[in-house]
Amino acid sequence: MKIALIGYGKMGKTIEAIAKDRGHEIVLTIDMDNQEDLTPENLKKADVAIEFTVPASAIKNYKKCFESGVPVVSGTTGWLDHKEIVLADMKKQDGTFFYASNFSLGVNLFFALNEKLAELMKTRPEYDISMEEVHHTQKLDAPSGTAISLAEDLFAAHPGKHSWTLEKPKKETEMHIEAIREGDVPGIHRIKYESDVDYIEIEHSAKSRQGFALGAVLAAEYTADKKGLVSMKDLLNL
């Protein structure tokens, strides 16, 4: 498979190494110094593009991929306020878009665990719910896209919480998310149910970027012959 890498930071370089180990070819690499090379002609050399940049660049990069007829795997977070615009562009161009707030296989199993626990706890109003996420200092968005996905899944299963806040909750239906930025932490997510007498906590902690990068390559392999919007739930058959 021929891959275009849009974004060549730490994650892009890790994705490149894993993709090559799996027998794939990197035919285009885009970073801050050669953005003018992101052209239809260059994109069409690839079977699929993997995009890990920043929110300000991501939306126009997706559009270029759709217009070029190249499936795109999106690893950038922080752009979801423009999600409807992106999906409309995808449909207009009959494109393919793989979006995941987190590509780690373990995190996506954690998503399923979060939904199950929320379902079990929905009749236990004595337990208040909070979340904590910790990431490296270079991460720009807060809370993380993964934390937002966890929160949305939790709200869908648990009637006691309807929204999240980074501040002290003003309503019982609000869930506090503590977003911590320190060191070079790849990612930690904790969800806590606490009553007056005890608490239940689930946690996922990433040891390195390897898990995210492998998931992105697996997503590219899955996406290359698909159409429309696809996700990790499709890939993992969850």
Give structural notes.
The model has no long low-confidence stretch (mean pLDDT 94). The protein is 37% helix and 24% strand. Helix 5 runs parallel beside helix 6. Strand 3, helix 3 and strand 4 form a beta-alpha-beta unit. The chain starts with a strand and ends with a helix. The protein has 8 helices and 11 strands. The protein is of the alpha/beta class and 238 residues long. The strands form 2 sheets. Strands 2-1-3-4-5-11 form a 6-stranded parallel beta sheet, sandwiched between helices. It has a 5-stranded mixed beta sheet with strand order 7-8-6-9-10. The radius of gyration is 19 Å and the shape is elongated. It has 2 domains: 129 residues, 3-Layer(aba) Sandwich (Rossmann fold); 101 residues, Dihydrodipicolinate Reductase, domain 2. The longest helix has 17 residues.
Give a nutshell description of this structure.
The protein has 2 domains: 129 residues, NAD(P)-binding Rossmann-like Domain (Rossmann fold, 3-Layer(aba) Sandwich), CATH 3.40.50; 101 residues, Dihydrodipicolinate Reductase, domain 2.
How far the N terminus sits from the C terminus, by CA atoms, comes to: 25 Å
Oligomer: single chain
Count of folded domains: 2
* CATH fold label of the largest domain: Rossmann fold
Would you list the SSEs in sequence order as H and E? EHEHEHEHEHEHEEEEHEH
β-strand amount? 15-25%
Question: What value does the average pLDDT take?
Answer: 94
